[in-house]
Amino acid sequence: MNIGFIGTGNMGKILIEAIIESHSLAPSAIFMTNRTIAKAAAINKIYPETNVMDNASEVIKHSDIIFICVKPLDIHPLLLNVRHLLRRDKCLISITSPVQVEQLESIVNCQVARVIPSITNRAFAGVSLFTFGNSCSNEMQQKIEKLFEGISTPVEIENEITRVASDIVSCGPAFFSYLLQRFVNGAVKETEISQEKAVQLASEMIIGMGKLLETELYTLPTLQEKVCVKGGVTGKGIKVLEEELGPVFENLIKSTHRKYDEDIEEVRRQFEK
Fold first, then answer.
1. Where does the record place the Pyrroline-5-carboxylate reductase catalytic N-terminal domain (predicted)?
2. Fewer Cβ close by (within 10 Å): the C or N end of the chain?
3. What residues form DSSP beta bridges with 81?
4. Could you tell me the strand order of the sheet in which 3-6 lies?
5. What backbone phi and psi angles, to 5 degrees, belong to 271?
């Protein structure tokens, strides 16, 4: 099975690296291209057995499964140019949330799926979100899931929860790394701890917390209960968080959904021309 990547920006590169280093696929089975071909060549320099192609058409010709890793508004014009190459035995996978599988199926005759990855997949961890088109056979679904099982926990989702699921899985690492950095900055500003030491302690804390949750010894609420002794230091800190955070996460979700709705509308206009 050969896998193609049209677009080797941040997420395309992360997927290629994770798939190769998890031994989910041999490097020689990867065919890739990018608008700026130097980006694909840079990956090839690290993994010389991979194949850099001149354009999207060449990637499709050599691949059984093709990942489209470009911006949402670049997908429609790209597919119009290459759809004659997308035979029924091939599978096209979009990794962007505003483009629905039904929209892809409206202009290509091949099998279609959407997989929304996360940067955590680079460490063979976290979740990848799956939505399969009606065109996608059971056999192809199993192949895609097996590919991602080596780098993530695949979870199938409905269109209705695409944005919020992406907020948690794909955007979540950025949101919580920002909060963790603010936590570190506050500690450095208000005490004698160095930036380096605070970052080390915070990083090890978040890794340990993840491992605790992974063991299922604690849930998020019970973990808080175990640490937060009534009337103690942690309780005082939680009270500040309750007072200061307010509806910040509700507002965050509202904001991402507003942007998502704008993106969906722009994509809809393209596909309905």
1. 3-97
2. C
3. none
4. 51-52, 30-33, 3-6, 65-68, 91-94, 111-116, 127-132, 153-156
5. -75, -15
pLDDT tens digits, 206-234 = 999 999 888 888 888 888 787 877 678 88
Three-state SS string over the chain comes to CCEEEECCCHHHHHHHHHHHHCCCCCHHHEEEECCCHHHHHHHHHHCCCCEECCCHHHHHHHCCEEEECCCHHHHHHHHHHHHHHCCCCCEEEECCCCCCHHHHHCCCCCEEEEEECCHHHHHCCCEEEEEECCCCCHHHHHHHHHHHHCCCEEEECCHHHHHHHHHHHHHHHHHHHHHHHHHHHHHHHHCCCCHHHHHHHHHHHHHHHHHHHHHCCCCHHHHHHHHCCCCCHHHHHHHHHHHHHCCHHHHHHHHHHHHHHHHHHHHHHHHCC
Residue 89: φ, ψ to 5°:
-80, -5
Which residue shows structure tokens 């940067």? 119
Instruction: Render pLDDT for 39-98 as a digit per residue (tens, 0 to 9).
Output: 999 999 999 999 999 999 999 999 999 999 999 999 999 999 999 999 999 999 999 999
Using CA of residue 109, residue 6, residue 164, residue 141, what is the dihedral sign?
A: positive
For the entire predicted model, the pTM comes to: 0.90
Does a structural domain hold residue 269? no
Please tell me the distance from the alpha carbon of residue 113 to that of residue 115, in angstroms, as a whole number: 7
CA 239 to chain centre: 33
Q: Is residue 205 located within the same domain as residue 147?
A: no
